[in-house]
Design goal:
356 residues; mainly beta; 16-stranded antiparallel β-barrel; 16 strands; 67% strand
Length: 356
């Protein structure tokens, strides 16, 4: 734990030093404690316990001019699991996450803006069942054009991939292209529509169902094409309401991975009383797979490890200009095939936020 803390501190100080060389940095720290009813996201006999979290955020501009800027943001966090009966050595487990993003933007014409961003995320896990270490990176370029008063269009391309440290999860490479349209002439009502195409290549063999009903690997790797469409509306009238609907169509060359999904998200934010703000967030996803069985009978797969249902209630108060406190309750359930197993969990969190 101490070694990971030192690494996190060195990375954070390095980023802060780079930011301060160009512009003043904004640094925040968030510390919290949570009780999780299903620490390791198991389907049966869940184990509850306490989790401590500490996150640091540093952001600022390396370069800022009238026509554009270069910004950098670093997020580093440590999460410690204190309930550890199921872990191999009986000690508390740790999850350490570092996320670094560098972004730039330049205005090339009166109505056209070009931007790009690079993202690197590293997750390290020790002695925590159900958590996997990985390295994730991506590069994205965007072109945004103002079409008329209140209307704009965006075209973007993203290239990235995941390098998992878990032997059971494959490495993934992705290409993504998207088009978005935005419209809003006031803060009271804004709308958005978009379509995306995502190509995924997995470092594992594609699967095929043979004549006897079994599943056999093929000589080539699995590739998926995910086509998606989404529409969202944001309403502000005494409170902020954000509603989003999305549709996904995943076509795979591997048995068991093709599906169609509907996803609905709702976010409501409102000031209550005494300086307290309330938030409610709901995410629901319904999937229908093309194939009736999971790829490996009797085994698990990341196919089912998506958040099918999620609900969060949060109360927060900014006590001073630099210090805030919040209480949060969350309900989570992952997806499952037909009558397959799934987990549920309830998480209660107390957090304190301070600007440094």
């Amino acid at each position: 734990m101490r070694g990971r803390g030192r690494v996190l501190g060195v990375v954070l100080l390095g980023v802060m030093g780079g930011i301060q060389g160009g512009q003043a940095a904004e640094v925040r720290a968030v510390a919290g404690m949570a009780h999780d009813s299903n620490l390791f996201e198991t389907q049966v006999d869940p184990q509850g316990g306490w989790v401590n979290r500490l996150y640091m955020f540093a952001s600022g501009y390396l370069l800022r001019r009238s026509r554009g800027y270069v910004s950098v943001q670093h997020q580093g966090g440590i999460k410690r699991f204190w309930q550890a009966e199921r872990q191999a050595d009986g000690r508390a487990g740790d999850v350490v996450v570092n996320r670094l993003e560098v972004a730039g933007q330049i205005r090339v014409a009166r109505r056209v803006v070009l931007s790009n961003s690079s993202l690197l995320k590293v997750k390290q896990v020790s002695r925590v069942p159900g958590e996997e270490s990985y390295l994730r990176g991506s590069v994205e370029g965007r072109a945004v054009a103002r079409l008329s008063k209140g209307a704009s269009g965006t075209l973007y391309y993203r290239r990235g991939g995941d390098d998992s440290r878990d032997a059971l999860l494959p490495e993934v490479s992705l290409h993504e292209v998207g088009i978005e349209g935005h419209y809003g002439r006031s803060r009271h009502l804004r709308g958005r529509v978009g379509v995306t195409w995502r190509w995924l290549d997995y470092d594992r063999p594609a699967l095929e169902r043979d004549a006897g009903g079994g599943v056999v690997p093929l000589e080539f790797g699995q590739s998926d094409l995910v086509r998606g469409g989404s529409a969202g509306v944001q309403i502000y009238w005494g409170m902020l309401v954000h509603l989003t609907y999305g549709f996904l169509d995943n076509r795979s060359n591997s048995f068991g991975y093709g599906f169609r999904a509907h996803r609905v998200q709702a976010l409501v934010i409102r000031h209550l009383a005494g300086g307290v703000d309330g938030q409610a967030y709901v995410n629901v996803q319904f999937r229908r797979y093309d194939d009736p069985l999971i790829p490996l009978p009797g085994g698990g797969s990341e196919v089912d490890e998506y958040e099918q249902t999620m609900g969060v209630l949060k109360l927060s108060r900014q006590v001073t200009d630099r210090f805030g406190i919040s209480l949060q309750y969350g309900f989570f359930r992952n997806g499952a095939r037909q009558s397959g197993g799934f987990y549920r969990k309830h998480v209660y969190t107390l957090s304190m936020d301070t600007s440094l």
